[in-house]
Amino acid sequence: MIPATFEYHPASSVDEAIALLSQYGDDAKLLAGGHSLIPTMKLRLAQPAHLIDIGRIPGLSYIREEGNVVAVGALTTYATIERSEVLRRYFAVLPECASVIGDPQVRNRGTIGGSISHADPSADMPGAVRALKAEIRVRGPNGERTVAADDFFLGTFTTALEPGEMVTEIRFPLPPARTGSAYTKLANKASHYAVAGCAAVVTLGADGACTAASVVITGAGTMPTRASAVEAALMGKQLDEATVAEAASHAAEGLELMEDIHGSKQYRAQMAAVMARRAILKAAERARG
């Protein structure tokens, strides 16, 4: 498996990367960690004439608290996210999600910005980012803008990024008290991609009832999809086994289900419900402290 011929451009700054993207247009691809793009290039599913390496740009790998948000640089690796005490304190779903991506080699090179920009429907991180209702900062030839995670993912390998734009930062709003989050998935045994997965975030009131819920299904559909029916079924309820199981049974509603050698639409719908139940129960347990 050998990629088609391409020209390699190491960028030393965000501005240089954007200039190169503007210069080469649709013939160019950004390379961050490379664990999504390089395999597709080897299979010649992607054949960019120009590869712009942003992996050496300084100042894009960090995790830091800034007021009421935690900011994560686009080049922050999964391994760094997995080890972060700050993220573990506020958003257990992120280290948990990172810990089940690929293998140690992938986690040490793959980046959060690369994952959400690639928008593979079976990837793990896009679902967690959307469940946490993050804000995604992007920069391009027309300057910087912020896109809500709910508006960022548009379809299979498709995002709201405009030509010449790149992700620079993901910002996670700090959760209210008594909030828990979790990620569970049924993994493909070879690739470790999600056949069906769920990222869940729940907030409990003083009486233990659910006051907020954010549930996103990944792997089963053509993009990370908010399970609105599940969220509605949780609101105002005590999150016991029976209530959560009933709510999770709606996990496949609204999904444009995928079907392939790893599972039929019916199988993925059922597994989405199973993963949703497990993730919600774990998130609720964490919310109770």
UniProtKB/TrEMBL annotation:
Keyword Cell division: no
Domain FAD-binding PCMH-type: 1-177
Listed InterPro entries: CO_DH_flav_C, CO_DH_flav_C_dom_sf, Diverse_Substr_Oxidored, FAD-bd_PCMH, FAD-bd_PCMH-like_sf, FAD-bd_PCMH_sub1, FAD-bd_PCMH_sub2, Mopterin_DH_FAD-bd
Record-linked SUPFAM superfamilies: CO dehydrogenase flavoprotein C-terminal domain-like (SSF55447), FAD-binding/transporter-associated domain-like (SSF56176)
Origin superkingdom: Bacteria
Name of a matching Pfam family: CO_deh_flav_C
Molecular-function GO term, any one: FAD binding
Family matches, as SMART domains: CO_deh_flav_C (SM01092)
Protein's recorded name: Carbon monoxide dehydrogenase
Source organism phylogeny: Bacteria, Bacillati, Chloroflexota, Ktedonobacteria, Thermogemmatisporales
